[in-house]
Amino acid sequence: MLKQIWILIILLGTTFAAVTGQLSSSDQELGYFDQIEFFSHEEELSLAEARDLQSSDWKSAPADNLSLGFDKDHYWFRLPLKNLHASDTQWLFRSKYPLLDTFDLYLFADSILIEEFHTGDTLPFEQRPLNQPSFVFPLTIATDAEYVIYMHVHTTSSLQLSLSLQSESSFWQTMATENATSAAFYAILISMIF
Where in this chain does the record put each 7TM-DISM receptor extracellular domain (predicted)? Predict the structure, then answer.
């Protein structure tokens, strides 16, 4: 038993060494949670109605992990974005909480709709933009435009949003680390059984 645990520890050490590394400035995860705003309503609003809301109708969201509890209201979120890099870049926008019935994302550049995604746990898995258990949306952000992301979220379960915006390479490194951590957890559980 002790031998199996030592082998597991050695394998885990090499796994974590393989998936961690320094990220360049173009590979970092962007923090923006102080700028996100939300609006809730009992009835579902259209995208046009959400965009026409007054600034006073929007509320500032909590700092990092947004948890609104069990609420059957329809929520709209908006988030301004700006690319600070010298070139157009591909980003992956992720909501880590997968138990959302409806998750619609709209990306506007200078008030023009350029990307639109409709997903949620009530829709077929194949409809997701990326084959991931969480909701991941590929976004191309140019350097010369002002962007706003609008999100419509509705669920009958707990409403939580844990959002991130990462470059592709940073996203896949994060996925590798999360998968290695999950594998380590299950390996330890299995080793305790035998």
Answer: 41-166
- Please tell me what DSSP assigns to residue 30: B
Q: What is the pLDDT of residues 70-107, one digit of tens each?
A: 888 899 999 888 777 767 778 888 888 888 999 999 99
DSSP summary character for residue 45: P
Domains and CATH numbers, the chain: 29-171 (2.60.40.2380)
Contact predicate 45/38, CB 8 Å: no
Among the listed residues 106, 103, 94, 93, the one whose alpha carbon sits nearest the alpha carbon of residue 139: 93
Q: What is the pTM of this model?
A: 0.74
- Cα separation, 151 vs 164, whole angstroms: 14
Q: Which helix (H) or strand (E) holds 173?
A: helix 168-193
> What does the pLDDT read at residue 150?
95
Distance separating alpha carbons of residues 37 and 77, to the nearest angstrom: 6
How large is the average pLDDT for residues 3-7?
Answer: 49
Q: Which of 169, 178, 167, 91 is nearest to 134 (CA)?
A: 178
